Amino acid sequence: MMSMTMAGDARVRERRRAVPFFCAYHMGLKPGRRMNERRSETTRWRPAYVDCYAGHLMLCVIAILLLSIGDAMFTLQILALGGEELNWFMAVLIDESVTKFVAVKMALTALALIMLVIHHNVRIIYTMRVRHVKYAILAGYSALIGYELCLLNLAGKL
């Protein structure tokens, strides 16, 4: 006859695999087995606000901030080589002071990211949430940095 302790010890083994670094389930790209929300129909379209945010969310925000700093640096280098700022608001700030330009650019980016992080579960349209917009912003900033690097390469200053 099998004792209860032996049966208990058999269930202790770890059966789960390690979570990979890039997981589509954590990024919200794949819904997993839960296709529908766990909330009732009356609160289905309301956002769920949380106090603790996931690490991948903060990684995305930090990456956007770093790309924004890189964008400001590359913009100033392009302007020094004879380029022109097409954003009239930033052009006015650059004419006044480079320090003011960088400070306002970083402040606007940080405030926008704070609002996007707070509302990251809000549904924009049926399947698209604010967190997906953050990933689109990250991709857009990456493309912008690539474009600025190409401009600097064409100017021969890279």
Task: Explain this structure.
The mean pLDDT is 80. It contains five helices and no strands. It starts with a helix and ends with a helix. 8% of the residues are buried. The protein is elongated, with a radius of gyration of 23 Å. With 158 residues, it is an all-alpha fold.
Counting helices, strands and paired strands, the structural category is mainly alpha
Number of helices: 5
Low-confidence stretches: none
- Average pLDDT reading: 80
What overall form do the CA principal axes indicate? elongated
Provide the gyration radius in Å: 23 Å
| Residue share in helix | 55-70%
Major β-sheet, in short?
A: none
Distance separating the two termini: 77 Å
List the helices and strands and how they pair.
Blueprint: H1 4-10, H2 55-80, H3 88-96, H4 98-118, H5 130-155
Helix pairs in contact: 2-4, 2-5, 3-4
Question: Which characteristics define this entry?
Answer:
single chain, 158 residues, mainly alpha, 5 helices, 0% strand
Describe the structure in brief.
This protein has helices spanning 4-10, 55-80, 88-96, 98-118, 130-155.
